[in-house]
Amino acid sequence: MTTQDLHFERRGAHQEIAVIRLTRGKKRNALNDGLILSIQKVFETMPEGIRAAVIDGEGEHFCAGLDLSELKERDAGQGVYHSRMWHAALERVQYGPVPVVAALHGAVVGGGLELASACHIRVADETTFYALPEGSRGIFVGGGGAVRIPRLIGAARMADMMFTGRVYNAQDGERIGMAQYLVPQGQSFDKALELAARIAENAPLTNYALMHALPRIAEQPADQGFLTEAMMAAIAQSAPEAKQRVRAFLEGRADKVKKS
Q1: Tens place of pLDDT per residue across the chain (260 aa)
Q2: For the stretch 161-196, what's the b/e string if a residue is b when 16 or more beta carbons lie within 10 angstroms of its beta carbon?
Q3: Which superfamily does 204-250 belong to?
Q4: Catalytic site residue 60?
Q5: Which of the residues 73, 114, 174, 229 is marked catalytic?
Q6: 114 is catalytic
Q7: Is 6-200 a CATH 3.90.226.10 domain?
């Protein structure tokens, strides 16, 4: 699954973690259609035994957005089809086979922020900065950002970024919800890998529920959300692995929650 612009490898004690690295470092890992389709293919053909994934960027930046040198003139219909292609690819990240942790550093800009927002957990280091320069370039986000980013930071903040070109640094980005973790420079990948290893230990059905059910429950009216939650809880706790884990806890063979 490794290509010119994307590197794939397996990590972890049982090779259970997929590391997916953007390798267009000379272009600040700017996204072109080939790279987007490669990301989609990785998540559609994830090998057996993978339980979590980390997305990282080669060099000084996670991803500086759309590669404008490859921007083509399109009529309205072609533009819709192109945007929908990006939607399909990033949907495979968000609603794919395994939880995804993004290791952010340097530029997380435009399409790079759209990619990051499709991941389930985002770890930023102190070099990270966030921007949506599409407004100043006469274009609009087209890779799902108008849906996913407001769910992280709110529509007003996203509009401000596009209206004014506002750039958020790592500290302010974490404060408003761009990332869930902030670590010292150069440590985002190691932290992301640590979190992926922890996630990989969860029961697969629980991880599936968190990826596929939780975001949909959050969008449902309360009465529908409660019913969906009840059904998902019943399904999850009926799994043999869940029964084993509960039994281990009751018999004192599992760790209790402790203050960190």
Answers
A1: 789 999 999 999 999 999 999 999 999 999 999 999 999 999 999 999 999 999 999 999 999 998 877 777 788 999 899 999 999 999 999 999 999 999 999 999 999 999 999 999 999 999 999 999 998 888 899 999 999 999 999 999 999 999 999 999 999 999 999 999 999 999 999 999 999 999 999 999 999 999 999 999 999 999 999 999 999 999 998 878 777 876 766 667 767 667 76
A2: bbeeeeebebeebbeeebbebbbeeebbbebbbebb
A3: Lyase 2-enoyl-coa Hydratase, Chain  A, domain 2 (1.10.12.10)
A4: no
A5: 114
A6: yes
A7: yes
